[in-house]
Design a protein that fits this description.
This protein is mainly α. It contains 5 helices and no strands.
């Protein structure tokens, strides 16, 4: 069972990391298509770049060995960013198929966090 859990962890974490990192990269370099997707939300351009940079750093934190507390913060940040994206689109009446991706990525974030191996978790203090 533990081996299957590890395989699912890496599949989900790999997909999550790929999507978040390259999405963050398109935000950081301000690709036109990405900026167009943010227009209905009314966020300033500098904010889009900042979120993109933090997304890329979050993925790096999740993937590198060690730094368990940093991983916890990275998972939380990615979850807040993805759920915030869904809520932002709903609040601005920009409800399109594009809210599916951040919703699914929020779920993948929780699954990756839950399935992570013991050596990537902070030990419980009793």
């Amino acid at each position: 069972m533990e081996k299957r859990k590890l395989i699912w962890y890496w599949i989900i974490t790999g997909l999550l990391s790929f999507c978040i990192f390259f999405g963050g990269l398109t935000q950081a370099v301000q690709m036109k298509q990405t900026l167009d997707g943010f227009k209905p939300l009314g966020y300033p351009t500098y904010f889009i770049s900042l979120i993109g940079i933090w997304k890329m750093l979050g993925v790096i934190a999740i993937l590198i060995p060690g730094f368990k507390l940093l991983k916890e913060w990275a998972y939380a940040g990615i979850f807040f960013t993805m759920t915030g994206a869904v809520i932002s689109h709903i609040a601005s009446n920009d409800i399109k198929a594009q809210i599916i991706a951040p919703f699914v990525l929020a779920i993948f974030t929780v699954l990756s966090w839950y399935l992570r191996p013991a050596d990537r978790k902070i030990a419980a203090v009793n």
